[in-house]
User: What shape does this take?
Amino acid sequence: MTIDVLYVGRMEYGHALDLQMRLWEKVASGESRDTLILLEHPEVITLGIRGKKENILVPEDELKRLGVEIVQVNRGGDVTYHGPGQIVGYPIMNLNNWGRDIRDFIMKVENAFIKILEDDYRIKSVRGDKTYTGVYVGTDKITAIGIQVKRWTTMHGFAFNVNTDLSRFDWIVPCGLKDRGVTSVQKLTGKKQDMDKLFRRTAEVFCECFNASANFIQNRYF
Assistant: This one.
């Protein structure tokens, strides 16, 4: 199996959502191969289908003044933050090719970041429980995961904190979990990371965890 990898740089959330929708239709209908979109977002706060507005701790007017958009989305999960220094991935994958097992799909995504952290940084991490997905170092989340599945095809995905400004998470109750914190590769290593290198590494390990090869393609959608 082969997964196309499409890196689009920094993209506003709405534009990325439109790209997801267009690709989702092609993948769900069998017109396109499974695709992993990789990008960074400008600062944005998103609310999933279980999201509670009270988990946004800063007044909406203040966030608007700072240029931070709030977007309601149809992924799983509660509230999360996206911004520079964070690797965001949107796997658009037809699960008819992968055993129609949503939990197994999520576990493979989690395994990718557990492997990167262990192999590249000797950082021990674990997956969340059945209720709260993601990857944690101790009680601090380093990778958030929230997906939607329609017609057995996925959209939305993961957010991996690399050089993320963790103070931004003070704006929210991350994922609605008051008893857990957040962390990043930069915080854990004490060193700013090479984002280009980690984008490629993320793509390679993600595909490896699905026993697939990565086909890096040029941005053909813009």
User: Anything to note?
Assistant: The CA atoms of residues 55 and 173 lie 5 Å apart. The chain is about 30% helix and 30% strand. The chain has one domain: 2-217. The mean pLDDT is 90.
